[in-house]
Amino acid sequence: MQAMVYRGPYKIRVENKDIPPIEHPNDAIVRVTMGAICGSDLHLYHGMIPDTRVGHTFGHEFIGVVEEVGSSVQNLKRGDRVMVPFNVFCGSCFFCARGLYSNCHNVNPNATAVGGIYGYSHTCGGYDGGQAEFVRVPFADVGPTIIPDWMDDEDAVLLTDACPTGYFGAQLGDIVEGDVVVVFGAGPVGLFAAKSAWLMGAGRVIVIDHLEYRLEKARTFAHAETYNFTEYDDIVVHMKKITDHLGADVAIDAVGAEADGNFLQHVAGAKFKLQGGSPVALNWAIDSVRKGATVSVVGAYGPIFSAVKFGDAVNKGLTLRMNQCPVKRQWPRLFEHVRNGYLKPSDIVTHRIPLEHIAEGYHIFSAKLDGCIKPLIVPNAA
Amino acid sequence: MAYTAEKPALAETSDQLRARIPGWGVDLDPRDRPSVPRERFDPGSSGAHWDFPERQPEKWPRERSNEHKFLTPVFGTSCPPKGVSGAMRKYAYKRFSEARAAHWLILVAADRVDSLGSHFRSFLTLRPDNPITETGIRSELTHHGLASRMGKKRADLAHQPLDPVIIAGPWVLGGVAAYAGLKRVRKSVGRGAAQSRVTITS
Q: Smallest Cβ distance to A142: which of B1, B48, B135?
């Protein structure tokens, strides 16, 4: 089969690999019909996540058709059209039993600090991902769901990570009616977080970024008030000015490890890998909110230490909430929102790229060319 | 507004927002939010029909965090550790917990050894690494590379020139090291030959 393969920082190519076999009785093999590149894939692509091996296939946002099932699979059969959450999870451990599917203890031997994620390095379990024609899906009775007939493929693929992660980020903010919510990052997750903040009753939603075309999307797609931080000497001061010098009630970091806005932080984290990520957006979030506020973090960071302004968080009495999104837990409610027209995930798709051109896809997304917000990947065999 | 007990007024009321924004407030009640409360004990809801999953066969000694009690029952089988980078990875997992910086820094170093070694090995194959196709740089020409940057207030433009340095740096350093090594070998070979001529003549 054809699969995207990592060759080292900033380098990928398509290779022929063996179709993955069933390795466990509850495995399924899924023929991928559509995938996506996630902003967090760029952390892998840039060589920021430890234990990313040459030969690894990325991709944790994908949908497809069941090709084969293991002997103990009861809920799926060959030919089913399925969407697969980015989390690999067992459904039965201490954490899964409490709904924390992203923190599953039974699927990642390489680390206890993170669960399993498709195509996201050995730090996240060493599973090959869905930027390929076929993918192994462990715990087929637990993770995947048959795509409802009424749902578009492009909506379905965005419901495997970006949309639920943004929705989850808004939930972590504990938004109450009339809250001022500031979202750092107008990428896919930030756009969905901003949109979701309204569903939870926010009274004002502000989005910060440096890419004008993405801020335009935040205005039209997420009805947000937007600011380009490059136009201000100090965006934190500006946030104070527009919130009566109190600060926002809730901030959401939807940027993560490659935040811009501070050259040294960015270069130390994203270029020279001297810290787990560039926490510029997180530090701005901490400093932009009012005392006693909540900061929600859904941007991805590497496991190495980062220079976070923790003292300010302590002294302001902030609540910091964060996690990888337990996607499947979000689905029933999100399906309702999509069906009711409150959310249209595919509205943020800008590029549809054949698998054989995936190297260009990564570069376009990474270098923010051509107004790119969300690139989808379409395998040849689809 | 002075610093008083009042919450600053919003530009729009809830009713105005509800009228303007589709779905405004449908998840106002935290009970409608799927991840509230954070932990909800409901072991029967996941679809799992086991208390503990059957174990996947371990086809090679699978490296694992020393913070785990045992190898997890299911795990990824992509890219088994190999060569020098593989030995570094095994050492990092065996010797240092996730709490130690050494664990992660050795893994990052192993990643670099892995990619450099793989690049060099690729030249012994029919498909050597190609920096043009593998970096996707051609999209700069096909997807408005210049127009996407020119006249735009983009903070990332300040550090994008570092990308080629990061990509090409190891190659340049490797080339310089190889050239210096070759020069040294030639010099010592030349000196050896001169010495043997002297020995022969005398």
A: B48
CB contact under 8 A, B115 and A168: no
Between chains, do A24 and B156 touch, taking CB under 8 Å as contact?
no
Asked if B69 is an interface residue toward chain A (Cβ–Cβ < 8 A), one would say no
Assign domain A163-322 to a CATH class: alpha beta
Q: Which residues pair with A28 in a beta bridge?
A: A69, A137
Q: In chain A, where are the structural domains located?
A: 2-161+326-378, 163-322
Q: Count of A–B CB contacts within 8 Å? A: 310
- What pairing do the DSSP bridges indicate for beta strands A225-228 and A204-209? parallel
B166/A266 Cα distance (integer angstroms): 14
DSSP assignment of chain B equals --S-SSPPPPSS-HHHHHHHSTTTTTT-SGGGSTT-SS----GGGS----SSPPPPP-SS-----TTSSS--SS---SS---HHHHHHHHHHHHH--TTSHHHHHHHHHHHHHHHHHHHHHHTTSSS---HHHHTTTTHHHHTTTTTTTTT---GGGGTTTHHHHHHHHHHHHHHHHHHHHHHHHHHHHHHHHHHHHHHHH-
What is the ipTM for the molecules in this complex? 0.96
- Cα→Cα distances A358→A61, A355, B28, B73, Å: 14, 5, 40, 33
Instruction: From residue A144, give the alpha-carbon distance in Å to each of A21, A129, A157, A159.
Output: 18, 14, 12, 12
How close A364 gets to chain B, by Cα (Å)? 7
| Residue B70 pLDDT > 70 | yes
* Percent over 90 (pLDDT), chain A: 97
Residues A215, A209 contacting (CB under 8 angstroms): yes
Q: Decide if B19 touches A, using CB distance below 8 A.
A: no
Give pLDDT tens digits for A124-172.
Answer: 999 999 999 999 999 999 999 999 999 999 999 999 999 999 999 999 9
Distance CA A238, CA A229 (A): 9
List of chain A residues whose C-beta atoms are within 8 Å of the C-beta of residue B137: 363
> Which residues 125-164 of B are in CB contact (within 8 Å) with A?
129-131, 133-140, 142-145, 148, 152-156, 158-160, 162-163
Architecture in CATH of A2-161+326-378:
Alpha-Beta Complex (3.90)
Q: Which residues of chain B have a CB within 8 Å of the CB of A125?
A: 75-76
**Both tokens assigned to B59:** 């086809």
- Select the residue of B32, B48, B134 nearest A141 (Cβ to Cβ): B48
Q: What is the separation, in whole angstroms, between the first and last Cα of chain A?
A: 12
A177/chain B closest Cα distance in angstroms: 7
Facing A10 at nearest CB: one of B133, B145, B167: B167
Which residue is it, tokens 């009630």? A249
Calpha distance B176→B161 (Å, rounded): 21
Percentage of chain A exceeding pLDDT 70: 99
Of A201, A212, A304, the CB nearest to B104: A304
CB neighbourhood size of A148 (10 A): 13
What gap in Å lies between CA A1 and CA A353, rounded to an integer?
18
